[in-house]
Amino acid sequence: MSTSTIISKHQLTGLYILTAILMVGYGAIFSLLAEIRDSFGFSATGVGFIGAAAFVSGFIAQLGLSRYADLGYGSLMMKVGLLFCIAATAWMVFADSLPEWIASRAALGFGAGIVRPAIRRLVFIDNPTNAGYALGVLAAYETAGFLIGPAIAAFVNTWFGLSETFVVLTILLVVVFPLVIGVQVPAAKIPPGKTIVLELIKLPAMQSCLAMGAAFWITIGVFEVIWAIFLSDLGATQIFIGLSMSFFGLPMIFISPRAGALAQRRGPLRVAILSIGVAILCMFSYGFIDNLWVICIPLCIHAITDAFTMPATQFAVARASGEDAIASGQGLFGAVGMLVAAVTASAGGWLYDLSGASGLWWISASAMMVLMLIAWWRGGDLRQPPRTPHRTG
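Now predict its structure.
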């Protein structure tokens, strides 16, 4: 294992914690949408706009600004992005109209969309020979934060109130702000130009990555909108639904670091093809299983496969982008993922009403299968482990 040379282990751990806190905010707001609807009398459509605002603003931030982390502005991006997030959660303390909630949620998504590509660039270039493991650790912290968020929101909202919940989220973000002070994200040796996104899209390896990402994010979009409704229609209680959603993320905390290392050792496309392939089988199975306890079996398997998919795809993107465009590639990948999730979430409810659970799950799984065939076709050397990088200095 090589030694980090860009930032200290303490600083790296701090960035992991910062990422987790950002996801605490996401998880908390996700779990409070029904409470926000009831407290302010918003319609379901209005709440949908609040949720979609984060996807849209995150898409804009990652697609339009990620390359600046490759140009040497990564440290500034972390600070500005965090300030956006702090302002957003502080605004939520006082927001009482639908436009305010949409705008504040958009600001939070925009801020996080600025921060995350910069962190991923730093994590990768800090230690390229162990980057798969590091990206897996980052995925584990992100997942842990998202799982903790609803618990914090439930406790604070129950005992103190909705506004106080966002006070706590604001305080958490203020507390972690010093973690980005003094952290430097080195610029690329050959900085990417304004057309870097188009240049990346033309690369067969990046096309493979985007196909993998789209397959993965189809699951996220469908689950976000339909999973609770699907289980409820099968007779599940709210406790069962909540536990199933929380459990789904647990394997990522424990498996993702080793999964990332495996992707670097064996080739990211090989790992992702296998893990997403098993996830596709699980998606098909949801369409014909109508017993709540039996459905837990493919759900557990699906949760484990996603713990392999997430770091494998992120490592594949870093490979496809090249060291000079790591943040640009991660931003493109994240933006496409958010766009796919937004479209899938919008279409998921319509498909569920039109063709029922079987139609929704089977159509989604079929689309994932086509995307994975494209990923394998365009993947090229992503099927193989990387050559050991030569480090100078």
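The chain has two domains: 7-187, 193-385.
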